[in-house]
């Protein structure tokens, strides 16, 4: 990578490489999360819709337990954390076009996380009451309260994450334009 000199000194230097790496990691973690939500919307929930109520509740509860693992959490929380880290590296006037797009991604990734925390996770927790019930379980009622709103909010957060992915990609394009000329 070459540097371009201005009266104020080097315009671009290897100092920005950690920012580009953070931007790439933010893009990858956001893409993995958007892909997870996409997979649920386009296949998992369509298959689950065909299950009987008891199987639906039991299997979905098992998924909700195993999905909370380090690899998933790296994308679930990493999309926000790495986007913020990337933004910090581009807090210079000559990188403002990059920074604005990364900030947009931060906002979108936080919005997706908020949607999960406000809607999807509480629905998951309500469904999990079947695992600790001491009385007979109303599987049809649990499913009725869960399935439609969970699917709708999953699509919303998937679209929000996809938008975050797009703006992170555009931030990389802006970085290429700035450093090329």
pLDDT below 50 for ≥5 consecutive residues: which ranges?
1-10
Distance between the termini: 12 Å
Query: For the CA atoms, what is the radius of gyration?
Result: 21 Å
Order of helices and strands: EEHHHHHH
Strand content: under 5%
The largest sheet, given as strand count, sense and whether it forms a barrel, is: 2 strands, antiparallel
Task: Supply the helix-strand structural class.
Answer: mainly alpha
Can you give the helix content as a percent range? over 70%
Task: Assign an overall shape.
Answer: elongated
Counting DSSP H or I runs of 4 or more residues, the number of helices is 6
Work out the number of β strands. 2
What is the topology, as strand order, of the major beta sheet? 1-2
| Mean pLDDT over the full residue set | 92
What does this structure look like?
With 181 residues, this protein is mostly helical. The protein contains 6 helices and 2 strands; from the N terminus they run E-E-H-H-H-H-H-H. The protein has helices at 17-48, 53-66, 70-89, 96-127, 129-132, 139-180, and strands at residues 5-6, 9-10. Strands 1-2 form a two-stranded antiparallel ribbon. The protein is elongated, with a radius of gyration of 21 Å. The relative contact order is 0.17.
